[in-house]
Design brief:
DNA Primase, Chain A; DNA primase DNAg catalytic core, N-terminal domain; Dna Topoisomerase Vi A Subunit, Chain: A, domain 2; 5 domains; five-stranded antiparallel beta sheet; 26 helices; globular
């Protein structure tokens, strides 16, 4: 804390007119200074600054001291504001220990992480151990000055180097284990560094404390990127890379630019985009959106131009819209990502791209229109299925109403029809648990999200239970993959057939690549099961558990451990696979029937008769499989 007498001294010597004048165009009127209010973007001279006292806006009611102004305008803490003003006033400001609360209990962890960061940074630039990392940075056109701005470092391959160095500074193995910097392997008692042979990126919290690291593997192996383990100071779902450095620029510009990766942030910063942040290697979470909301309610998404980047863009947009953000998206040229675009095109091109960002909903409609999705009945239905989640996500009622009108106009249907559809889906969501969904356009839990109904900050307990239709069949396939990997190819082949059948029924998705039901793993409707399936597909069932865990959300890691621990649960693998595939095929037929039933309100005349006939044929096909329809929520 700062002693009261120092705060008063800084306040007495502060030139509030000069400080506020850096952000507001002020003009002297008598003994006060007036200008447009920066808090409600006023136009008239309703914002008054009185030397030696404070400021007041007579329209929006904002008022306070010079410290309050800096806190609200630039997102500073009170201590930061006092120090900032003290520096300008020539008053030395020193903090003393808190008189009542005592030191923050996290300080030892912050100190340790910062010490390790300094060690990694020194290893990068001094001696032969960091040569490969230096060459990698050079290949990405990252200068030493830029690397030092972000504190980039290198974790050596040597098992004892970091541990020995920290021991000389008094850090015990117990402290390093508690911080996740050392890990104990299942196969033996030897302790190993969590980060080895990796370029390291320090992760700072919003106040500038080093809380962990991201590490990029330079040689072959998995995972390519590795984050610090979750701890009292590092919770990746509640951190944004570069926010501590970017928050003042975000507050000043009244918008944040969000990208996907560390090097996207570093590159954009190098070309003058200071208010840029990135999630911690996962999809944007609600916690990260809430954190960003302390500084702005306007976000510009600047993700890769490929299919996965497009999907990530729209997922992030829905999370932000639900938190009351205005969301715009930048469309990069095909094949570009923010890093390469900024590197090759330069600062002016990046600035133009950000300035030209369009509303996320308009971008969705634009993609659908260009691909001809509003041209026929069935694709129009699917187009609306892609638009409804974003309409539902918008928490601002005005934004939601504008989106409804835009979608109805694009599809050429009455707004009342679309509104009824929106309400129908909402009612379904209100009675169905949030952990999953069996209907198109109603996504289940994101793999990066915590388990449903688990309070924030508490680890989920008990066996995982899915509420997705026929999720037991998905679990059976995963159990066979993990306990009897000889059947892996058979399962992949059968799942591929299911996905091909779904793709053939839905038709081509040309020009629209954000559908969560498309692509590998689409046969798995439970997001947790799908995440595990895709990881096993990519890495194989014999991958070391720690490598697989780095690719999975906590819920999927829990499912992995549960299923791997049931080797005797599968008596007849062939029969289990056949039964599971039959159930999933029946579920797909149910979904197609529901999708056709949703087309009926949009159809007219003979179209309705054709749809009714097709629905009957699909229902007959489902009955022939001999599998029950899904009714109430079932436990896996």
């Amino acid at each position: 804390m700062i002693p009261d007498e120092i705060v008063q001294q800084v306040s007495d010597q502060a030139d509030i007119v000069a400080i506020v004048g850096e952000h507001v165009r002020l003009k002297k009127t008598g003994t006060v200074w007036r200008g447009p209010c920066p808090f409600h973007q006023g136009k008239g001279p309703n914002f008054s600054v009185v030397p030696g006292k404070g400021y007041t806006c007579f329209v929006c009611g904002e008022k306070g001291s010079v410290f309050t102004f800096l806190q609200k305008r630039l997102g500073m803490t009170f201590v930061e504001a006092v120090k900032h003003v003290g520096a300008k006033a020539g008053v030395e400001v020193r903090e003393v220990e808190r008189r009542k609360e005592g030191p923050d209990p996290r300080e030892p962890m912050w100190e340790l992480q910062a010490t390790v960061g300094a060690y990694f940074e020194r290893t990068l630039w001094e001696g032969p151990a960091g040569a490969d990392a230096r060459a990698y940075l050079a290949s990405r056109d990252v200068s030493r000055g830029l690397a030092e701005t972000f504190g980039l470092g290198f974790a050596p391959r040597d098992l004892q180097a970091m541990r020995s160095h920290l021991a000389t500074l008094g850090y015990t193995d117990e402290r390093l284990l508690a911080a996740g910097l050392l890990v104990a392997r299942d196969e033996g008692p030897e302790l190993r560094p969590r980060f080895r042979d990796r370029l390291t990126v320090p992760i700072l919290d919003a106040s500038g404390h080093t809380v962990g690291f991201g590490g990029r593997l330079l040689g072959p192996g998995e995972p390519k990127y590795l984050n610090s383990a979750e701890s009292e100071v590092f919770q990746k779902g509640k951190l944004l890379f570069n926010l501590g450095r970017a928050r003042h620029a975000i507050r000043k510009a009244e918008q944040a630019v969000i990208v996907e990766g560390y090097f996207d942030v570093i590159r954009l910063h190098s070309v003058g985009v200071e208010g840029v942040v990135a999630p911690m290697g996962t999809a944007l979470t609600e916690g990260q959106a809430e954190l960003l909301g302390r500084f702005t309610r306007q976000a510009v998404l600047l993700y890769d131009a490929d299919g996965p980047g497009q999907k990530a863009t729209f997922r992030a947009a829905d999370v932000l819209l639900a938190k009351g953000f205005e969301v715009r998206v930048v469309t990069l040229p095909e094949g570009e990502d923010p890093d390469t675009f900024a590197r090759t095109q330069g600062a002016e091109a990046v600035a133009r791209a950000i300035a030209g960002a369009m509303d996320v909903f308009d971008r969705k409609v634009q993609l659908l229109e260009r691909a001809g999705w509003f041209g026929d009945l069935q694709r129009k239905r699917r187009a609306l299925d892609r638009l409804l989640p974003t309409i539902r996500a918008a928490s601002d009622p005005v934004t939601r109403d504008l989106y409804l009108a835009r979608a109805a106009d694009a599809a050429g249907i009455a707004r009342e029809v679309l509104l009824a559809e929106l309400h129908t889906v909402r009612r379904a969501n209100s009675v169905r648990p949030a952990a999953g969904s069996a209907t198109r356009g109603t996504p289940g839990p994101r793999p990066d999200a915590p388990d449903a109904a688990v309070p924030s900050g508490r680890a989920p307990t008990g066996p995982y239970r899915s509420t997705v239709e026929q999720a037991s069949a998905e679990a059976d396939l995963l159990r066979v993959m993990l306990t009897q990997p000889i059947w892996l190819d058979r399962i992949v082949e059968e799942v591929g057939k299911l996905e091909e059948e779904a793709g053939a029924d839905d038709g081509a998705d040309a020009g629209v690549d954000w559908d969560d039901e498309a692509g590998p793993g689409a046969a798995f409707r439970d997001d947790v099961f799908r995440a595990l399936y895709l990881a096993l597909l990519d890495l194989g069932p014999d991958v070391p558990p720690e490598a697989l865990a780095e690719r999975l959300p906590p819920a999927a890691v829990r499912v992995y451990e549960e299923l791997r621990g049931e080797p005797g649960a599968i008596v007849d693998a062939r029969a289990t696979i056949d039964g599971a595939v039959r159930k999933l095929r029946g579920r797909a037929l149910d979904a197609r029937v529901r999708a056709l039933e949703q087309l009926l309100p949009l159809a007219a005349g003979g179209e309705k008769d054709a749809l009714t006939l097709r629905i009957k044929r699909l229902a007959d096909e489902k009955r022939a499989l001999g599998v029950p329809s899904w009714g109430s929520v079932r436990r896996r």
